[in-house]
Amino acid sequence: MVSIQRVFVMICVMAASARAGVIEAHGIELEVPADWTVTTGKTSTTIMPAKRSGRGIEIIEANAPLTVAFVRQVMKAAKMTDGDVREGTRNGAKAIGVLGKVPVAGGATVDVEMIAIENAARHTVLLTSYVTSDADPALRAANQKLLLSARLVGPKLALVYKKARRKDLVGYPADVVKLIASTGATLDKQVRLPRPLPIVVDECGAINAVYSSRDHAITMCHELWDSTFALFRLAGYDVEAAHRLAKDTVMFAFFHEFGHALVDELDLATSGSTEDTVDELATIFFGKAKDVGELAAYGGLQWLDTIVRQPQTTNQFYYAHAFDDDHRLSIACLLYASDPQRHATLMKILKIPDHRLARCLGEETARRKAWDSLLAPHLRKPSSP
After folding, report:
1. How far apart are the first and last CA of the chain?
2. What is the total count of domains within the chain?
3. CB-count exposure of residue 144 (10 Å: 0-12, 13-18, 19+)
4. Are 166 and 253 part of one and the same domain?
């Protein structure tokens, strides 16, 4: 166990052993500014502004569960005064924040900010910042952004599978469940989510796929699979083709709900129609998922083309999202603009006119650049943890 007295003692900075960017330390991850250095010791990690000395952020993992009582022990050991203790959550994890003053050499005091987070091992991780009192506003802003970025490491898009309970409900076959899980794992490596976002496969009592902002979860309903497979069979496809198209369609639904989740979970500043925004986000991640994404887009477009001929459908996913011809064209246009050469054949199959595709390139390229800029802080680099 790390000594409580050790918590507020800054270690000497040796040669920086880690680059700036997204780093992992003691079961949490943080975004470190480009001009800051990171030094890792046996029991602690220190993050320092490159052009400053004596002020930085120290991270220590204590072998104790996170409680207010433990945090107050740390404050007492550090002789902290004016300690304002607040309980809450930080990016989905239990957290306690403290603002106070600690004594330094010469009888003076310095302002400190401490954030305590409980990691997956149920150890308390203490982030103590001495930059709070710095006179440089840019340095204080960078310090605050770094502290706010702290979150638990580990998979966020984990699959939660629940077998269909109704006797008349077949539910998702094993290969589709496996594809949903693997796609979630792929996306997890590409985007940094602030909290766990489970993908729940379950019986819902409705033909639907839905993201819940209350539960922070995406639910893929067994009813959606049964309905989609039956739709393609009724449209004349054989069992193999209907299975393939239904699989691609439910993946289209998953990507669409993932788009809803990103807008809410990342608190993205967007304008215009929510559904248009989600279409754009989903299409961006179609491209990131390569073949799976392309097939999902194709399946979704085939599904839209088929379901529109079923005016009595009870498909809640279809009605809740107001899918129509304009929606179908918008998705096709976004997909084509992401990689014209790759998607040219699909556009011919969908009978999208060449003059419309030319407009797609002009319209969507600018929007994609805007999205790239908006998403950049939340995307992992290939070498990021």
Report:
1. 26
2. 2
3. middle
4. yes
Please check whether residues 197 and 73 belong to one and the same domain: no
Query: In which region does residue 20 sit, left (phi positive, over 0), alpha (psi from -120 to 50) or beta (all else)?
Result: beta
Residue 44's domain spans which residues? 4-152
Same-domain status, 259 and 195: yes
Boundary of a domain, candidates 112, 133, 152: 152
User: Model-level pTM greater than 0.90?
Assistant: no
Chain segment 92-113, per-residue pLDDT in tens = 678 999 999 988 888 888 889 9
Q: Do 243 and 365 sit in the same domain of this protein?
A: yes
235 has pLDDT over 70 = yes
For residue range 321-379, list pLDDT tens digits in order: 656 677 777 778 877 887 888 888 878 877 888 888 888 887 777 777 778 888 888 88
Among all chains, which residue has been given the structure tokens 């002789």?
Answer: 79
**Distance of alpha carbon 280 from the chain centroid:** 16
**Sequence-ordered alpha helix ranges (H) in the chain:** 68-77, 137-148, 174-188, 222-234, 239-265, 274-288, 291-307, 316-320, 325-338, 340-349, 354-375
Distance CA 367, CA 228 (A): 31
Report how far residue 327's alpha carbon sits from residue 304's, in angstroms, rounded to the nearest whole number: 9
